[in-house]
Amino acid sequence: MVKYNKRQAKHSFLSTPIFFGIVVGVLAVLAQTLFRIQPPQAYGICTVCHARDLLNWLSKLIFSYELDSAEATIVLPLLTTIGIFLGSLISSKLNKEYRFIKTENLIKMFFMGILVSNFGLIIISCPTRLVLRFAFGDPFALISIIGLLGGIFVGVIFLKKSF
């Protein structure tokens, strides 16, 4: 049986996702209060939508060409996608869990990623935002959730058959 002292228990709690979730949540509330940031209703954490909004912000900054995006990105860019990527990379390196996974066909995986991103933009949401929109009473969110689950089912079948 392994015994932990209080110092080890405190250190192990500080390195858990729960602790970082609490810290990020508190920082988000402080940022919203201090900088008067008002994101749109039901705006979840989405690597598809936030990447779209980041690219829109960059196109507006560099080329003075504005695409359709959320109100929250008019002044400041959403760096969620970059933060998730860098955070997961640093975390995996620190915990010695980083490894490169070779796939059979890189081109096929690249185009599958493009399809996932495009279909995410078609339903105008990520799964987190769909659930939030459904909680706000949006009937189209339920249809999108059913379509998302159907797409996951079909995708799993394709992956199991190595299509």
Offer a concise description of the structure:
With 163 residues, the chain is mostly helical. It is built from seven helices and no strands.
Describe this structure in words.
By secondary structure, this protein is mainly α. It has three domains: 1-37; 45-99, no CATH class; 101-163, no CATH class. It is 64% helix and 0% strand. α6 runs antiparallel to α7 (139-160). The longest helix has 22 residues, at 139-160. The protein is globular. The mean pLDDT is 77.
Low-confidence stretches: none
Amino-to-carboxy terminus distance: 47 Å
Portion in helices: 55-70%
The number of domains? 3
Topology:
Layout: H1 6-14, H2 17-34, H3 49-63, H4 80-94, H5 106-122, H6 127-135, H7 139-160
What descriptors fit this protein?
7 helices, mainly alpha, single chain, about 160 residues, 3 domains
